[in-house]
Amino acid sequence: MKSRDQGTETRDQEVQRVKRLLHSALPRIGDEREPDRDLWPAMLRRMDEHASRGPASVPWFDWALGGALLAFAAMAPRTIPLILYYL
Fold first, then answer.
1. What's the rounded Cα separation, in Å, for the pair 45 and 51?
2. Does 8 reside within a domain?
3. Number of neighbours of residue 83 by Cβ within 10 angstroms
4. For 38-53, how does the pLDDT look when each residue is reduced to its tens digit (9 = 90+)?
């Protein structure tokens, strides 16, 4: 019976040791957990800016890759299911 009590005592000591290690390793957050300002309006503005640019904001190499893919599919039409599978 005494060995079982010693096992739980050792386990409790290990749990306390791990708690102390975690508390020492992680910085304290503090009382203020909210950001200084609301970030959602800024995020909405950025999303609107990106949406208003349209297809002109797509880099040239994306257009080149799409054109090469279409040309390859035109030359080898049997690869179209394979291309669609990987998209």
1. 10
2. no
3. 13
4. 888 989 998 888 777 7
Whether the predicted pLDDT of 29 surpasses 80: no
The number of domains in the chain is 1
- Give the structural domain span for 87: 60-87
Cβ–Cβ < 8 Å for 69, 83: yes
* CA distances to 28, 60, 65, 77, 83 from 71, in Å: 58, 16, 10, 10, 12
What CA–CA distance (Å, rounded) separates 8 from 4?
6
Q: Count Cβ atoms below 10 Å from residue 21 Cβ, excluding itself.
A: 10
Q: What is the pLDDT of residues 44-83, one digit of tens each?
A: 998 888 777 766 677 889 999 999 989 998 999 998 998 8
